[in-house]
Amino acid sequence: MAAANNGSNTTRTFTNQFVQPPWRIVLWSVAYSLVLAVAVFGNLIVIWIVLAHKRMRTVTNYFLLNLAFSDASMAAFNTLINFIYAAHGNWYFGESYCKFHNFFPVTAVFSSIYSMSAIAVDRQAGRQAGRQAGRQAGRQAGRQADRQTDRQTDRQTDRQTDQTDRTGQDRTGQDDRTGQDRTGQDRTGQDRTGQDRTATATKVVIVCIWALAVVLAFPLCFYSTIRTLPRRTICYVAWPRPSDDSFMYHIIVTVLVYVLPLVVMGITYTIVGVTLWGGEIPGEASDNYHSQLTAKRKVVKMMIIVVVTFALCWLPYHVYFIVTGLNKALMRWKSIQQVYLSVLWLAMSSTMYNPIIYCCLNSRFRAGFKRAFCWCPFVRVSSYDEQELRNNNTRHRSGHQGSMCTLSRVNTRTNSIKKAVSSCRGNAGVNGDNNGNHGNLQAVAKSNLYSDPDDVADNQFS
Known about the structure:
mainly alpha; Rhopdopsin 7-helix transmembrane proteins; 2 strands
């Protein structure tokens, strides 16, 4: 986002009217170096945790990986350079890096906030698909339970009448169980296909995010140049109409990279929050439902903290350029350089907070950070931490795919309800009492309306 700074501060950089004492430069250097170190190493560890542990390769975590890559890249390539140029007013890095320096921050910030937006939209879409799948599966399970109860009653009567018929029914039951096993294998293949589709869809979304980011930031790369003055060199964006174009471009960037995605995330997380905090689900399945609900609420809380942190860090930056664009006389104010260094530091610091948030709120990321720092004498990796990152095939099959693949979610919910139907079969009496079965199935179906076995919700939060 340095481009807007270079474009709107052209007058200040030509005159170089601000000179800082050495002690102030040292303090700012320490502050910016802290951001650089924490952001780069923290986000690299997040990337390692996701890529090195199969259990962490989920839809939401892939978006978090893209977010971590964007933050680490911007911190590495722009934070320190921004500070050096803002503090000294002299560009030391050549014209090629001037173009990259103006181009990449907008690209990285666009990728970051739209990765967060993709997570929010994905969770809302998954919840809607889950509710629809739960209703359909519940109705199918109810009809299947009725048919199965009738068949069990007929078979019991036949067994009491004729031993030969009972033997034939046992063989039929074996065939049915064999067919069910084969059907289960087919469902496993469908789940794997759903996982592949989900991974492909996630990668496509990430590629589209970066492509749109490049398009938005391309004018900065195209118009960026350097100019050599008698005592120094400056890097700036040479807009065809410097005043109007610079201000208009920053307004467009503010809307597309700040206002619009925050509005979208605000709406989606409000809808998700109403669903998660909107009521209780009665029935025998409510114990399992409550455990899932608690995990999902913690997921949403974590993502809201990430979004709010981003919004607070970048708000002063956008306000600064809007105000100085409307009142250019402020650029000659003696303290404006300190104001700019402050808002720039706050904006750049947004790249270092996410790893801290993940470590504090996500037990699996916390276990990953412990493994990364296991060489420290005061860091202890427990058996629980090892189990958190260990691949579990049973949970992995149900928790790996996210809501990018609706078919996979439907299969997951249908399978869970059919398991409940199987248990009802064993409990069905000879008298064909359907009331108990209907009560259990209704509870399971209602629970599955809100059951979302997606990637992050399967993670354990504490």
